């Protein structure tokens, strides 16, 4: 059974704890550096993990997988084939423009699950095909097509994808914004506004959008959801902000509406102008009102050094945190990593999985296995919706479907030591996207590391007359992380794998605020953070696809519905109120639709009733929601129609529920057991049993901080 689970989360600040209790001892024992003149001699304390062979510097492991993402060579083969098709009339990227045809993205067409599973059972691999989105700006009428090109490696066909599950030939007015569209916007919209309103912009803001030196304006846009437009129209609101670090904190009260319905940008029309809290139906009306002096005029000067500093990520010199020059705790792998990251696989203790990166959806995990048994066939982020409220024309319509920004291309440049621990493994990926100039490598697109949560995963201490014992294990988990920077936001997407078989999906949000120019009516929609600055209230909603397979693909969704009962106590005859549960099995997918209701708590389970425990209970995984926020807008209003999934929220942990015969962390080598030497005299000494190599020797953690490398070549961070 296939389920799409949507999740949401609103964690504002990323709080990351790298702490390791033994670090203090380490500093003591490691201070064995001897400095003699300029020569530094390391004592015989070994570098952590040096004795272990790792794949980090060697050849990357590549599984024989039908899900391996397209190689550079395969993408070239696809492109070469497409370029020689005269009917597609494709432009090379350097010559492309919005009213011509060009290749937008190329990625592996994910083979059908049944075919992949057959391949895993030893049958021939499924056909390898590419999924290619092509902008057909010169077709009549223009459209965006989802094409299938195959079979790789020797391509012989290209055809429009033929499926009933979605539209694969989309009218051009619904296209996502691309870099070609932005080029056209600069050329035909910003240039025109900059020319016509030059005097106004200069007088009002002391800055202009073009030929502006160091007093520049930068534009942002709000594409208007088609739900608010007449059929067949494409329009967007634009607004100016000061082009400084960082522009979203310097919005201005100049907004304009552009009709972009025509595929040819020469025919785009600038319509309404909103300036100084007044709306004008045209540039002409606005300019004549402005010239006649009949309206309030905004008068702002370009942000000075102090204002720019306040909106920047520059370090604040005035800090009471500077008193002690003592560095923070760090996390490191004392014996080298316990996980392997290959070209398309990750393994960690009992866990194993495949991954690929799609230019549109970003990181996708497949075939997530525990002890070789698949638990999750597929897990990936599909969409992030952002919905604002506000007063000005643009602030009201700030609704975004962020995947249009292409998640795969938004995740790159992770900085070791901040974005991921310094000892993490970083993965580069190669993707094709016209927005980024075609095929290119995205460095440090993902990272993988093992962390110590510094909280017991399980423990019990017992002490009594007949004896005493202690058993416990710390929480060590593997994190697979990508961070998507979409304009002003940074979404940190973590998939976390625990030793007890639990999987956590976690989204943390940071970055810059989306804002609008402050006018008093804006206040009830957000926070007045600066003289002209209002940060709007909004929601971020995350849509994940999770395909759980509990001991095979034939599963069912069931809920354990908890309710209060008031019954006669069978022992004493009075009334007693307590909780009971009833099991409810979903027969159809519609039955399985879940709307959170605080008054009716439920366990949500994906179960296999042919695979049962010794007591006959079906083996299950529980889907545990960890963050939801109610969308109050009507289901059929405006943008909410495009994100119907947001009505059925879950964010989530996936927890084994009668899935294993016992807690899998019982066999974790990280376990510790303490027994008294003599049960009758537990205070007279105890034996501590550990299941790792018993080794209390120290090692020097080796942290390849990137600073020196960055000083020579910073491509890894800034492309
Ligand atoms: C991958 O596995 C399939 C099926 O077992 C086999 O036909 C194919 O030759 C293998 N490819 C490589 C490169 O090993
Ligand atoms: C692809 O073409 C090459 C060269 O023409 C040929 O050697 C190879 O066998 C072909 N591969 C397949 C899978 O058809
Ligand atoms: C699309 O698929 C359907 C069903 O398989 C088929 O009837 C139809 O002819 C196909 N259309 C094209 C254009 O291939
Ligand atoms: C000012 O704009 C209004 C429309 O908002 C227009 O009707 C009027 O003619 C303009 N006034 C001048 C003096 O141009
Ligand atoms: C112009 O500003 C004054 C003073 O802030 C205000 O009372 C008036 O309503 C404004 N006029 C318009 C048309 O916004
Ligand atoms: C430093 O910060 C404190 C607290 O925000 C403030 O009171 C003080 O004036 C600041 N000092 C300087 C020199 O900016
Ligand atoms: C339980 O039932 C008894 C008998 O009907 C009633 O008196 C009592 O109020 C009930 N308690 C609750 C909490 O519903
Ligand atoms: C929520 O659950 C309560 C208790 O079962 C029920 O009375 C109520 O109708 C439910 N609300 C919705 C909106 O389904
Ligand atoms: C398992 O579930 C199916 C579908 O709900 C049902 O027909 C079958 O009887 C169940 N089998 C067992 C052993 O409970
Ligand atoms: C910088 O590094 C990138 C790859 O990380 C490489 O492609 C580029 O050539 C390097 N630049 C210089 C000037 O060495
Ligand atoms: Cu936000």
TrEMBL record:
Q: What is this protein called?
A: Amine oxidase
Which InterPro entries does the UniProt entry name for this protein? Cu_Am_ox_TPQ-bd, Cu_amine_oxidase, Cu_amine_oxidase_C, Cu_amine_oxidase_C_sf, Cu_amine_oxidase_N-reg, Cu_amine_oxidase_N2, DUF1965
Q: Which cofactor does it need?
A: Cu cation
Entry keywords, A to Z: Copper, Membrane, Metal-binding, Oxidoreductase, TPQ, Transmembrane, Transmembrane helix
Which residues are annotated as modified residue 2',4',5'-topaquinone in the UniProt record? 489
Domain Copper amine oxidase N2-terminal as annotated: residue spans: 73-157
- Residues crossing the lipid bilayer are 12-34
Q: Which organism is it from?
A: Pinctada imbricata
The protein's matches in Pfam families, at most eight in alphabetical order, are given as: Cu_amine_oxid, Cu_amine_oxidN2, DUF1965
Q: Which family does it belong to?
A: Belongs to the copper/topaquinone oxidase family.
What EC identifiers does the entry list?
1.4.3.-
Post-translational modification here is noted as: Topaquinone (TPQ) is generated by copper-dependent autoxidation of a specific tyrosyl residue.
Identify which residues the record assigns to the active site: 402 (proton acceptor), 489 (schiff-base intermediate with substrate)
Q: What is the lineage of its organism?
A: Eukaryota, Metazoa, Spiralia, Lophotrochozoa, Mollusca
- Which segments carry the region annotation Disordered? 665-690
- List where Basic and acidic residues composition bias occurs: 670-683
Can you name one GO molecular function term for this protein? Answer: quinone binding
């Amino acid at each position: 059974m296939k389920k799409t689970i949507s999740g949401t989360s609103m964690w504002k600040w990323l709080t990351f704890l790298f702490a390791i209790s033994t670090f203090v001892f380490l500093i003591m024992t490691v201070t064995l550096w001897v400095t003699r003149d300029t020569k530094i001699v390391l004592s015989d304390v070994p570098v952590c993990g040096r004795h272990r062979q790792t794949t980090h510097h060697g050849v990357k492991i590549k599984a024989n997988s039908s899900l391996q993402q397209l190689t550079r060579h395969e993408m070239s083969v696809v492109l070469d084939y497409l370029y020689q098709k005269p009917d597609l009339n494709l432009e090379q990227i350097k010559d492309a423009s919005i009213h011509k045809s060009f290749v937008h993205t190329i990625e592996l067409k994910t083979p059908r699950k049944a075919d992949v599973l057959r391949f895993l059972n030893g049958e021939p691999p499924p056909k390898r095909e590419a999924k290619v989105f092509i902008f057909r700006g010169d077709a009549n009428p223009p459209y965006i097509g989802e094409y299938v090109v195959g079979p790789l490696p020797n391509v012989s066909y290209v055809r429009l994808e033929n499926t009933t599950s979605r539209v694969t030939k989309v009218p051009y007015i619904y296209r996502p914004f691309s870099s070609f569209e932005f080029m056209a916007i600069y050329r035909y919209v910003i240039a025109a506004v900059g020319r016509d309103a030059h005097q106004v912009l200069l007088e009002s803001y002391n800055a202009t959008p073009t030929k502006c030196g160091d007093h520049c304006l930068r534009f942002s846009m709000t594409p208007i959801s088609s739900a608010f437009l007449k059929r067949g129209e494409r329009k967007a609101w634009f607004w100016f902000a000061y082009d400084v670090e960082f522009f979203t904190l310097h919005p201005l009260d100049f907004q304009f509406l552009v009709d972009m319905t025509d595929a040819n940008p020469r025919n785009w029309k600038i319509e309404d102008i909103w300036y100084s809290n007044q709306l004008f139906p045209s540039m002409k009306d606005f300019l004549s009102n402005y010239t006649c002096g009949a309206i309030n005029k905004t008068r702002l000067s370009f942000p000075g050094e102090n204002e720019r500093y306040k909106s920047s990520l520059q370090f604040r010199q005035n800090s009471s945190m500077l008193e002690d020059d003592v560095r923070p705790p760090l996390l490191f792998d004392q014996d080298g990593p316990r996980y392997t990251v290959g070209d398309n696989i990750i393994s960690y203790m009992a866990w194993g999985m495949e991954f690929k990166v799609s230019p549109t959806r970003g990181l996708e995990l497949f075939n997530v296995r525990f002890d070789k048994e698949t638990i999750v066939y597929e897990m990936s982020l599909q969409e992030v919706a952002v919905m604002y409220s506000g007063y000005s024309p643009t602030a009201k319509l700030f609704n975004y479907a962020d995947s249009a920004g292409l998640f795969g291309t938004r995740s790159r440049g992770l900085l070791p030591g901040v974005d991921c621990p310094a000892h993490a493994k970083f993965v580069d990926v190669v993707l094709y996207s016209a927005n980024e100039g075609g095929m290119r490598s995205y460095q440090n697109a993902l990272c993988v590391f093992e962390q110590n949560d510094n909280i017991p995963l399980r423990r019990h201490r017992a002490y009594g007359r007949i004896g005493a014992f202690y058993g416990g294990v710390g929480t060590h988990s593997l994190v697979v992380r990508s961070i998507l920077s979409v304009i002003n936001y940074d979404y940190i997407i973590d998939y976390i794998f625990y030793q007890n078989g639990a999987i956590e999906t976690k989204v943390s949000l940071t970055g810059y605020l989306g804002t609008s120019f402050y006018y008093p009516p804006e206040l009830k929609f957000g926070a007045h953070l600066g003289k002209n600055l209002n940060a709007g209230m909004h929601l971020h909603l995350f849509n994940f696809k999770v395909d759980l397979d509990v001991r095979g693909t034939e599963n069912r969704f069931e809920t354990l519905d908890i309710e209060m009962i008031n019954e006669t106590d069978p022992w004493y005859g009075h009334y007693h109120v307590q909780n009971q549960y009833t099991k409810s099995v979903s027969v159809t997918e519609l039955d399985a639709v879940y709307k959170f209701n605080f008054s009716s708590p439920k366990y949500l389970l994906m179960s296999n009733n042919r695979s049962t425990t010794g007591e006959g209970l079906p083996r299950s995984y529980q889907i545990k929601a960890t963050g939801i926020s109610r969308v109050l807008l009507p289901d059929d209003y405006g943008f909410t129609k495009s994100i119907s999934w947001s009505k059925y929220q879950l964010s989530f942990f996936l927890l084994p529920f009668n899935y294993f015969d016992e807690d899998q962390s019982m066999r974790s080598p990280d376990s510790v057991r303490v027994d008294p030497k003599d049960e009758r005299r537990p205070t007279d000494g105890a034996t501590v049993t550990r299941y790792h190599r018993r080794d209390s020797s120290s090692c020097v953690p080796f942290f390849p901080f990137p600073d020196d490398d960055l000083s020579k070549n910073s491509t890894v961070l800034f492309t």
